[in-house]
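Summary for the steering committee. The consortium agreed at its last meeting that each partner would contribute one worked example illustrating the joint modelling workflow. Our contribution is presented below. We chose a case with several input lines so that the handling of multiple components could be demonstrated. No manual editing was applied between input and output; the record is shown as generated.
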Amino acid sequence: MEKKTDEYYIREILKGDSGSFSQLVEKYSHLAFSLSMKLLNQREDAEEAAQDAFIKAYNSLRSFQSSSTFKTWFFRIVYNTSISKLRTRKNVEVKIEDVKISDSELFSTESAVGQLNTEDRQKYLQTGLERLDPEERALLKMYYYDDFSMEEVSSITGMTVSNVKVKIHRSRKKLLQELKVILKDEVISIL
Amino acid sequence: MNQKDIMKQWFKELPAEQPSPDFAVKVMQRVMSEWTLNPIKYQPIISKKGWWTLGLIAVLLTSILLSLHSSLLAGPESISQPKTVYGLDLAQLFEPISHLFGQLNSISPAVAVGTLAIIALWFFDQLFVRTVKH
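What follows is the complete predicted structure of the assembly.
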């Protein structure tokens, strides 16, 4: 079947064809759920937040302006919905921790992780990500997995571009620091 | 490979987090219940009132033009004396219109019937689409 653009489906929905929304759901459900999951780290909550985000997007489709892409606009809704859910779940304090890892340690950890086999790397990366703050996980995911630019991440999260740059840089360092700890523990357990 | 590419590669290796298989169905069920509560109505570019106004203007314009045209042709004095309305020479004004109608007369009946049939089909198509959407 020929794939149409997001704008085409939006026009159809606004004309009254709600069924066209299923095309957008099909296309973005995996990415929306994945982002929610990074923020909420709990399957049920992530599904609920992603569903809520779709409903919000459907209801405010008229306010969507094509100055940004539908993907960026929708991800902003997913991000805000998940953050709200996270805040209601617990009082989230955004910790500004000092990342204590030197550049040489950073490089050696990166190369050590790079030498692991894919399966082990997946396992350790997953564990490392779980140790990060939800916001840090989401930022890394958007930048490295979803291929969003710094500007797009800024538009989704509402942070300034410079803030996004700093946070992504710090989150990456923190992830490598966690990976270093995980690898060290692993080596100790083997010995 | 730079640091960014290395990270990208690691992230792409992670298994995709998939929602439950009935996720899309659940979303669409909620969308449909939202729609029944507050449907997005089809809004034509030109409203019914607009169409009526346009129709009225067209009828008025046509009748004015026809009455002016017939008054221009009426009486022998119209030939000798050019008719003017607010300084406008009507004979000169209607010349292109008469020429156009003269041209239309020369169109083959098959072409005329074909064109009318296309317009009629388009009209019924529009009518059908609007009826379905309302």
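Residues 48-73 of chain B form the longest helix (26 residues). Chain B touches chain A at residues 3-4, 6-8, 10-20, 23-24, 26-28, 30-32, 34-35, 38-42, 133 (CB under 8 Å).
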